[in-house]
Amino acid sequence: MVTGKKGLVLVGHGGIPKDCPQELVTKLKRLEAQRRAQNLPPSQEETELDQTIRRWPRTVATDPYRAGLEAVGAALRPLLDGALFALAYNEFCSPTVEESIEELIRQGATHITVATTMFTPGGAHSEVEIPEILTGVRARHPEVAIHYAWPFDASTIAHFMNEQVRRFMSL
User: Fold this and answer.
1) Number of neighbours of residue 86 by Cβ within 10 angstroms
2) Which end of the chain is less crowded, N or C, counting CB atoms within 10 A of the terminal residue's CB?
3) How many CB atoms lie within 10 A of CB 18?
4) Cis bond leading into 78, ω under 30°?
């Protein structure tokens, strides 16, 4: 049985705001690719570009993805039996996964579940990047139980998709 405060971080991919200059995104992606090819930590320039894009002002019109994840979060929150809740984004948007986990820890969470809207296997974000972030946070906070609710069961996803498709098909 879990004792202490529980929390959930819902992670979405993150979108680029429509009014963010494309050259910033192109430069960030180039710097990320170079760094990964050389297995180096992010440069100051990459970190600053990442923060500029993540903190770009957003509206429903300029970032409908963020608005969509916020709507899912708003529908999910009341189902969580009072657990702490935070949204996070893997890239292009704030807060980061790490920032959201840290915020729940500041609020007293001792058991945190991280779930993503990225349902299918094979993606670097859900299979590599998020687990790497969680490893780092766990090392800094060994007193907090952090679980990653992934991968999703293929049968569960198939049933979910079937229900959605049935809303639009005449069978």
Assistant:
1) 22
2) N
3) 11
4) no
- Supply the pLDDT for residue 34: 94
Say how far apart CA 50 and CA 25 lie, in whole Å: 9
Tens of pLDDT, residues 27-46: 999 999 999 999 999 999 99
The confidence score (pLDDT) of residue 4 equals 85
What is the model's pLDDT at position 37? 94
Q: For the chain, which domains are there?
A: 5-17+63-166 (3.40.50.1400), 21-55 (no CATH)
Partner residues linked to 146 by β-bridges? 112
Q: Is the pLDDT assigned to residue 104 strictly greater than 70?
A: yes
Relative to beta strand 5-12, strand 84-89 is: parallel
Which of helix, strand or coil describes residue 23? helix
| In contact, 10 and 101? CB cutoff 8 Å | no
DSSP string, 26-37: HHHHHHHHHHHH
Cβ neighbour number for residue 69 with a 10 Å cutoff: 22
Is residue 148 a contact partner of residue 134, using CB atoms and an 8 Å limit? Answer: yes
Q: State the DSSP code for 41.
A: P
